[in-house]
Amino acid sequence: MCPYCQNDAPVVYRGMIAHCTACNAVRPPVLPTKSINLAGQPSKVGGVVARVVGWLVLFFGLAAAGIFGAIFQAIWPDGIVGYALGVPMAIVTLVMGMGLLVGGKSLSKSGSETELAVRDKAIWGLASARGGILTKDDVAAALSVSVEEGDAYLTRLAKTKPDDIAVDVDDSGNVLFRFRSYAARPRVGVRVDVARPGAHVSPADEEAALRAQAEAEAEEFRGAGSASRNARAR
User: Fold this and answer.
1) Over pLDDT 90: what percentage of the chain?
2) SS3 letters for 85-103?
């Protein structure tokens, strides 16, 4: 949990410093499973190593089985000693090698799924902190990835969760991804610019404007609650 934005968002390491993916605040180091850069990497590396070892076992094991089988069969051409040695060695090699290949593939898949789950969690935390509206540039900056990757992550989320994420286009042609559970919620506590561009506003005036806005929102909330009670009474 980030102590600044109160989002359960993972971190991203920029250099040696961990930053919150939701609010970009500096965070203490966390477990690898909570980091964009490290999540899933041990499994992916282990999967690659297992597959490499599996191919080596298959290559050298089958070669050794063939060589030993041929040598002993050449010594006793009328017998089956060569087959008796070579065939079991080949079977054991196949079992071990295929086991390593399948296990390595499973490890790599698990690592990719973990990595993707952590990135998805980071995007949802970022959406919560940004009021439910994200662009591909927002995601790219937060996750320290390319803009194309940011767009790919958002597009995949929108396709897999069409009921939760809507895709809009603003007047400038920018694609906006709207997270309905956050965009429909009032952004309580978010600082807003109450002044015209370029105008100077004193701290007292700005505080008064923010207080007035908070009172208006509270009044609206009370009105909605009163209307709800009246409807129930009827």
Assistant:
1) 15
2) HHHHHHHHHHHHHHHHHHH
How confident is residue 79, by pLDDT bands cut at 50, 70 and 90?
confident
* Interatomic CA distance for residues 75 and 67, integer angstroms: 12
Rounded CA separation 121/12 (Å): 12
Q: Is residue 73 located within the same domain as residue 161? A: no
Which residue, 83, 70, 162, 153, is CA-closest to 118?
A: 153
Number of other residues whose CB lies within 10 A of the CB of residue 86? 21
Q: Does 35 share its domain with 69?
A: yes
Distance CA 60, CA 63 (A): 5
In 126-212, at which residue ranges do the beta strands (DSSP E only) sit?
133-134, 165-169, 175-179
Kindly list the distances between the CA atom of residue 106 and the CA atoms of 46, 49, 99, 112, in Å, as whole numbers in the listed order: 10, 12, 11, 10
Strand ranges in 128-215 using DSSP code E only, listed in sequence order = 133-134, 165-169, 175-179
| pLDDT tier for residue 56 given thresholds of 50, 70 and 90 | very high
Q: Are residues 152 and 176 in the same domain?
A: yes
Residues 30, 160, 139, 3, CA torsion sign:
negative
